[in-house]
Structure formats: structure tokens, C-alpha cells
Amino acid sequence: MSTSIRVTDDTKRMLESLKREDETFDELLERLAQSEKPIDIGAWSEEKADRAREAVERSRESFER
Residue 37: left (phi > 0), alpha (psi -120 to 50), or beta? Predict the structure, then answer.
């Protein structure tokens, strides 16, 4: 199955600049779509999350002075 999508000339030029010589536009779009991975919620260990919270708190305190 094939689907057409419309893009502006500017968008096409931007895509062409990202496209590798040996890939089709379909392959380019697939590569770009796969590189946008969702945020992995809960990826930090509890220890790392605690350190981040402490850093945020120290930063906030520094602005209160």
C-alpha cells in the first residue's frame, strides 16, 4: 500500500538534507520516527532520583537568598 503526504517545499528541502544517499524518503521517515523514543518513566534508580530532587531543592534555595 502507498500513501502520499503533502509537505511544503521548505520541509522537503529539510528532509532532503537529512536523507542519506542510499535511502528512500520512506526509509528516512521511518528512521526519524524511530529515533523519537518516548521518555522511559521510572528510568532513574531511587538513589539517582533522590540526588536530583536534592539538587533542585538546593537550586531553589539559592534563588531565595
Answer: beta
